[in-house]
Amino acid sequence: MEQRVENDISPYRVFSREEWAARRENTPMTLTQSEIVHLQALNDKLSMREVEEIYLPISRLLAFYVEAAQKLFDGVQQFLSASDGKMPYIIGVAGSVAVGKSTTARVLQALLARWPNTPKVELVTTDGFLFPNAVLEKEKLMEKKGFPESYDLPALLRFLNDVKAGQRKVKAPVYSHVSYDVISGEMIEVDRPDILIVEGLNVLQTGRPPKDGKAIPYVSDFFDFSVYIDAEEGVLEKWYVDRFRALRSTAFRDPLSYFHRYSQVTDEEAQKIALGIWSRINLMNLRENILPSRQRASLILRKGEDHRIESVALRKL
After folding, report:
1. What residue spans define the domains of the chain?
2. Which residues contact residue 25 at a Cβ distance below 8 angstroms, ignoring those fewer than 6 apart?
């Protein structure tokens, strides 16, 4: 049985970990232990059990959603006497910095690509649609990097519109976490996938609707399904600081890294720097932009301190 929520008019059905795991039923495990290790992001934790109990039920649910969407699309095409090819199913993955969005997006991509009706699953992060650092510095937005105003929203909307329309070889810019900047002239191509996963901080964020009723598209308008990964503020802060400290002995040691200057600081200094960045930028973005969009998600995954997902909230149809 699903947990009873306090508010009977909640748009979500909330499941405990055990209740959600039972929804796997006979869904086969299609990932190996080595693949799971490869999919795990830095300082995140992902076990075979987590995939079996949380992600396999999600992939089973999404298989139902995608199959239904494909049948609906075929029916509408028949009604319109049209032949527009296929329309990709788009899934958004949102949540705070350090919450584990990359891990979730990669696991979903790997699992969904193994379903027979969705062999081609692409993954794009919205980092590539950030304005280049030169633009952010000119506009005095470096301290707002990751906030909605730091993205080239028209470019992101055009990309999603073209993908959703079934266009061939749609290009998206590439972001480097080493240089902490968009790579000039480098692009990836998305060529009519069965499923596109779009991962980013603010993909569920909206603005105030126009008073004149004119259509203003939001990124989430192109989503067929969305996932929000949730955790307490204090837990997120700890994960961010732990990741920052771990990067000091890995990526930050690269002389080309934007954060190379932090590789030689003491543990105490690193702690202070990480907490400053968290509170000044990431926490503010979480409170002002990311968290308010949580209730727009189709599925909310609630994480505990050990990175395990403790509960799942599924939006009612």
Report:
1. 12-205+216-315
2. 60
Among 212, 66, 112, 90, CA closest to 160: 90
Inter-CA distances, 160 with 6, 111, 229, Å = 37, 23, 22
pLDDT per position as a tens digit, 269-286: 989 999 999 999 999 999
Q: How far is CA 191 from CA 68, 127, 152, 157, in A?
A: 22, 19, 22, 17
As a whole-number percent, the residues of the chain with pLDDT over 70 amount to 97
Pairing state of beta strands 225-230 and 89-95? Answer: parallel
If one compares 105 and 8, the residue with the highest pLDDT of the two is 105
The strand ranges marked E within the chain are 12-16, 89-95, 121-125, 170-176, 181-190, 195-199, 225-230, 299-303, 309-315
Predicted pLDDT at 7: 53
Q: Tens of pLDDT along 220-257?
A: 999 999 999 999 999 999 999 999 988 887 778 888 88
Instruction: Answer whether 234's CB lies under 8 Å from 275's CB.
Output: no
Whole-number average pLDDT of the chain = 92
Please name which of 88, 264, 259 lies closest in space to residue 168, comparing C-alpha atoms.
Answer: 88
Q: Cα–Cα–Cα angle for 153, 175, 40, nearest 5°?
A: 110
pLDDT at 82: 82
DSSP state at residue 55: I
- The whole-angstrom separation of Cα 124 and Cα 42 is 18
pTM for this entry: 0.93
CA-to-CA distance for 194 and 166, rounded, in angstroms? Answer: 10
First to last CA, the chain: 18
Give domain 12-205+216-315's CATH superfamily.
P-loop containing nucleotide triphosphate hydrolases (3.40.50.300)
Classify 193 as helix, strand or coil. Answer: coil
Whether the predicted pLDDT of 287 surpasses 50: yes
